[in-house]
Amino acid sequence: MFGKGSREEGWGIQVSHVDRKFGKRLVLQDIDFEVKPAEIFGLLGPSGSGKTTLVKLMAGIDRPTSGTVVVGGVQMPRLDMLGKIGYMAQSDALYAELTAKENLDFFASLFGLRGRGRRRRIEEVMELVHLTDSMKKRVSTYSGGMKRRLSLAIAMLHRPRILILDEPTVGIDPALRVSIWNELRDMSQSGTTILVTTHVMDEAEKCHRLGMLRDGRLIAVGTPGELKASANVTTIEEAFLAFGGVRG
Ligand SMILES: Nc1ncnc2c1ncn2[C@@H]1O[C@H](COP(=O)(O)OP(=O)(O)OP(=O)(O)O)[C@@H](O)[C@H]1O
Hints:
- The protein is of the alpha/beta class.
- It folds into two domains: 35-84 and 160-247, P-loop containing nucleotide triphosphate hydrolases (Rossmann fold); 94-159, no CATH class.
- It contains eight helices and ten strands.
- The chain has a six-stranded mixed β-sheet with strand order 6-7-8-3-9-10, with helices on both faces. It has a four-stranded antiparallel β-sheet with strand order 2-1-4-5, covered by helices on one side.
- The protein is globular.
- The structure holds adenosine-5'-triphosphate.
- Adenosine-5'-triphosphate binds at residues 22, 27, 45, 47-53, 90.
């Protein structure tokens, strides 16, 4: 199911008994699950349920209060893993006064991409997010959706083994959303492990497996089919409500 990447060991993510506290507030509680190599794993949950807090631990930009996060066999956070992970945060980390091309060049340098390969890869990712014609425009003139697309292009630039995307398709129109999901599927088929957060139910259906978060707890994990079957419902939305104990 997961294509040729499934033969490669070690590029999964293991989250083991993770708690994250901010002061006295327990924002993540005993989170325990695994993302398999080359899988598209979706984290689904309402606003404030802890999705961003959890993906930051996996991206290695925060550390758990207790428990462990292991990515590609390495316990996080670890600085030398950052080059192997593509992370797209919810708020865009772009230089507004620079053009898209200058932003891409900057991140390409950080990732050690050089020469003709770098130019080709920049063209590829910009084509993918339909921004080729806006390559030379300043990011300050971009719309919100264009900034999201540029952030996605940057996250994919260095062909990371693990791609962590926090709400990647917010503000992106439906046609482009479809092409981005097609690309995510292709990447997973060629071995990239993808963790994506969403509250869009039809996107959740496209993931190989889902984890449902509610109030900092993982209330269910499984394929979309398994989750619907075990809740005896026909939609992911209903399954989420059933697992949360709040049937509509
Ligand atoms: N640095 C912090 N200090 C204190 N509280 C925090 C901090 N970061 C997050 N929180 C709290 O943790 C909870 C979970 O936040 P988080 O951003 O992880 O949720 P989310 O599921 O990603 O929500 P959304 O979909 O709205 O982004 C929230 O109540 C938030 O206020």
